[in-house]
Amino acid sequence: MDSRQDKIDNLNKHKALSELGGGQKRIDKQHANKKLTARERINYLLDEGSFEEIGALVTHRTTEFGMQDQIYYGDGVITGYGTINGRLVYTYAQDFTVFGGSLSETHAEKICKIMDMAVKVGVPIIGLNDSGGARIQEGVRSLGGYADIFYRNVQASGVIPQISAVMGPCAGGAVYSPAMTDFTIMVENTSYMFVTGPNVVKTVTNEEVTSEELGGAETHATKSGVAHKTSENDIACLEDVKQLLSYLPQNNTETANKLDFKLEDEIRDVLSDIVPESSTKPYDMRAVITGIIDEDSFYEIHKNYAESIIVGLARLGGRSIGIIANQPMAYAGVLGVNSSRKAARFTRTCDCFNIPLLVLVDVPGFLPGTDQEWNGIIIHGAKLLYALSEATVPRVTVITRKAYGGAYDVMNSKHSGADYNYAWPGAEIAVMGAKGASEIIFRKEIAEAESPEEKLAEKEAEYAETFANPYKAAQRGFIDEIILPKNTRRKLLKTFAMLEDKKVEMPKRKHGNIPL
């Protein structure tokens, strides 16, 4: 019979084998590819000494194809819980040194176990993805494991924050779990995501494309919108996860931590000179955002995707808020298919987790053209309108310049249930611009004039004087207050504080039917 020390030595041997993953040679290869190992990633992400591993000695159950001779403790994924800046989280990290991080039946069971626990406890779950896909030696059992994870992603959606870091390959069925989480961050040059790889693409469509071109971080950050953010390397990615988490609550019944904040003189003169006098001259809406929020607190989402709209998280008086803002520097800030979808998704994410919304408006309308119409601008624009109308968090709007046509309605207008609507003195709120409106309203008068050009200019000035200002809307109560730009931050600090305990009772229903 083994002595007590023999039993301790045996346990330590098993633990050491588990910590070694696929072996030193494969660990060295991971480092050579400028990637951290799964265990190094978890240790960097979590507070020092806080990680408690679950399932370290789990092994696969496959005996086909000689798999009974290839047993690795942990089976290619490290799972457990720990803290980030003192906050409890559950996390898993796929281990590429074990069967290329491929997902087996037991690998999936480990992930499902901690997903279930995260929901029960009510804390965020963070997935560090680095996997070659389903383990082909297991056939349908590995596919079933993916489906088990997907189901839990859906059940946890809107209940706890789910963050995915794609830090290596993520192909086939593996891509759907990150796609269903709240945020996806990809590492530049070492990660990729696609449903079918370059070889299959070449076989089916005869297209020559690399993994990076097909599904690299830059592709998904600029073309598809799958990646919410990209990071330069593994360390930067893990830092991004930590920073992102700081804006989010533990679950949907809580609010994000409020940072200590001392209210001082909150007049910001810099805001007075950002919007040009010419209504057609562009300016950077990020300068307006910077002038309103707490210093260095903007965490932009989808920065390089659908650039005519800006979305991101920030702090105002220490409170976490979500910001949606038209960007006049890109396509004059119009709403298009992708920008509408981008803003709608962000709206729903903030609403899930009790993050108030600030909407900054300078929008000339929807992007015209056959490409937009044929790709469903009606449906996609309706998504944003639906998402904002459905949101019950505090919602405040500031119109900095243009608010034209249906885009005025969509961008968190009073009519869609916004709580408080401000406008700057130079705001233009109308069905369309003065020139276009005059050409329609006064078409006959202009055509019959001795000098049509002069008559058009005269009528354009007349229309602009009537509608290219915020006063008609204010008289109707559609604008609650017209404020000087420099007073915006002070007004918003008071408004969001006033709305902090806002409660909305929604009609009883299973769920609404958002236009997808």
TrEMBL record:
InterPro entries: AccD/PCCB, AcCoA_carboxyl_beta, ClpP/crotonase-like_dom_sf, COA_CT_C, COA_CT_N. GO terms for cellular component: acetyl-CoA carboxylase complex. Pfam families: Carboxyl_trans. Residues 4-260 form the CoA carboxyltransferase N-terminal domain. It comes from Algibacter amylolyticus. GO terms for biological process: carbon fixation. GO terms for molecular function: acetyl-CoA carboxylase activity; propionyl-CoA carboxylase activity. Belongs to the AccD/PCCB family. Residues 262-509 form the CoA carboxyltransferase C-terminal domain. This is Propionyl-CoA carboxylase beta chain.
